[in-house]
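Quick one - inputs below.
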Amino acid sequence: DTGVSQNPRHKITKRGQNVTFRCDPISEHNRLYWYRQTLGQGPEFLTYFQNEAQLEKSRLLSDRFSAERPKGSFSTLEIQRTEQGDSAMYLCASSLATSGANVLTFGAGSRLTVL
Amino acid sequence: SQQGEEDPQALSIQEGENATMNCSYKTSINNLQWYRQNSGRGLVHLILIRSNEREKHSGRLRVTLDTSKKSSSLLITASRAADTASYFCATQSFQGAQKLVFGQGTRLTINP
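Output:
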């Protein structure tokens, strides 16, 4: 297993277009997270899944954003009608659910630039 | 919104010196974690300290936690140029939420 994989690594799009990012987590991890990070800031939580169930969504996740994890394995994050303010690094992370601490393994991120 | 406040926002020291970064948070926590991020890359977990622990060591890293002050510090001893990165604290609450809430980070530069 090579860790958490994200594709594409970079995406440049024009305002108003739709974009989709994919995340392949560590295979034995049942939790999957999406975060957004802008330059000079820490990651901001967007949403997370346990298996295929989406258990929490941030207020940051407007109706233009949708995330899925259809078979409890890979996940997609789609942004519809992109705006310049959507430009950011989109980070995916996974973890194995335990009764205690939750340590995340992150992918390298997908950088979105909206022109 | 982010829970953690990190201090300083940026730190520049000479190789071999020690680097100390601080993190404050607002709510009760289950644990606090530190992550490192090299420029343009994902985050890497460094160390975790539980709410009932006061100090933890891992190699050149030392973490302290003061739950009464809702603060933590990360000390990197004998810094190396390769330690240049951004460092983030992240908190996990007791409230059933499994997400981590990250601070804004400290950008550390080690000058050779």
